[in-house]
TrEMBL record:
Any Gene Ontology biological process: amino acid biosynthetic process
Similarity annotation: Belongs to the archaeal-type DHQ synthase family.
Keywords: Amino-acid biosynthesis, Aromatic amino acid biosynthesis, NAD, Oxidoreductase
GO molecular function: 3-dehydroquinate synthase activity; NAD binding; oxidoreductase activity, acting on the CH-NH2 group of donors, NAD or NADP as acceptor
Keyword set includes Isomerase: no
EC numbers: 1.4.1.-
Name used for this protein in its record: 3-dehydroquinate synthase homolog
Domain 3-dehydroquinate synthase C-terminal: 159-334
Sequence ranges assigned to domain 3-dehydroquinate synthase N-terminal in this UniProt record: 11-144
Cited Pfam families: DHQS, DHQS_2nd
Length: 334
């Protein structure tokens, strides 16, 4: 579910704040006074206010957490089906964690984009949205970008394996992330940004190798990997502190941080496939049992077991990239 950005407007005549909020994909503006008409003169936007589209105190309730009694009140409001905006005197995630365990309609009152990023990932599922309390337009835009990237999804397609060809030794990149993944999750990589396989994380164990659920053995150094915001990067450029996208077999995405990227020489395989629409997908992956693609039902399949006609998940788009950004141009990649 897409997270919601709400911007607290102290001055309804502040056009810069209202405009920045709109440009950042705001769900609604929060006003503590019945002044919805003023901001609606500036733009068509939903409001949470005493006279708003959502009634403050009825549809949305602000609870300032000063002690356990306040937390218990917020929990009771959640049980009543209210949207609860949690405000703390010194920003902390503990009350949010406690309340998220009791209901989904939890919103966090935050002061900047970094706090917003933290709030939307608490306990993995995160809060339903954030109320941003700032008049800094750069912070509003940064928070909007963070919210928009949360749950960045793609449409995955079924591709049939056409060829698996052993290659010699190549430099390959193994990405160790700072997050554990589960079965059905992995990274999108490919020889071309126009066609990528969902390479499964190393969540599976066998008698010889333990599971490494934080790892995606991503492939040859020249290949692309999908990043947040629709961008890509060469695997050779990935380093500690970068962010990459991880997707499950349904195409639902999340942002994870890279802990390290290891480049080592390994025997490789060229894997080629084709979608039902005739789009070509290819990748060069390590020739090892632990390297897996993803079947349409989310189960992993080892690259050494692949045969012509097997179905795996892929992502395709029109070709054309400039420094990792999507561009419209004529291009042929072979």
């Amino acid at each position: 579910m897409k997270k919601q950005l709400i911007v607290y407007v102290k001055d309804p005549n502040n056009k810069k704040v209202v405009t920045s909020a709109l440009e950042s994909g705001v769900f609604a503006l929060l006003l503590t006074e019945p002044e919805s008409a003023k901001v609606k003169q500036l733009a068509r936007v939903k409001t949470i206010a005493p006279d708003g589209d959502y009634k403050l105190g009825e549809d949305f309730v602000i609870v300032e957490i000063k002690g356990k009694q306040d937390e218990e009140r917020a929990a009771e409001l959640l049980k009543q089906g209210k949207n609860v905006i949690v405000k703390t005197t010194d920003w902390t995630i503990i009350p949010l964690e406690n309340l998220l365990a009791q209901g989904d309609n939890v919103y966090a009152w935050v002061r900047n984009a970094e706090e917003a990023k933290t709030a939307i990932t608490i306990l993995e599922k995160g809060v339903k949205g954030v109320v941003l309390d700032t008049e800094d337009v750069n912070e509003i835009k940064a928070a909007g970008e963070a919210i928009n990237l949360a749950g960045e999804n793609v449409k995955l397609e079924v591709a049939r394996i056409k060829r698996v060809k052993p290659l010699g030794m190549c430099d390959r990149v193994c990405i160790d992330t700072c997050s554990n993944m589960t079965r059905g999750e992995g990274a999108l990589v490919g020889n071309s940004s126009a066609g990528m396989f969902l390479v499964h994380a190393e969540t599976e164990s066998n008698p010889y190798v333990a599971a490494r659920p934080f790892r995606v053995n991503a492939g040859a150094v020249h290949m692309y990997v999908k990043l947040p915001g629709g961008r890509t990067k060469y695997l050779s450029e990935i380093e500690s502190g970068d962010e990459i996208m991880i997707y499950n077999y349904k195409g639902e995405g999340k942002i994870v941080c890279v802990g390290r990227a290891k480049v080592e020489k390994r025997p490789m395989l060229l894997i080629e496939a084709e979608t039902k629409e005739g789009k070509r997908v290819s990748a060069i992956l390590q020739n090892a049992e632990t390297i897996r693609l993803t079947r349409p039902d989310g189960t992993p399949v080892s690259v050494v077991e692949l045969k012509e006609g097997d179905e795996v998940l892929a992502y395709t788009e029109e070709p054309g990239r400039h420094f990792g950004m999507k561009v419209k141009e004529s291009i042929v990649e072979k």
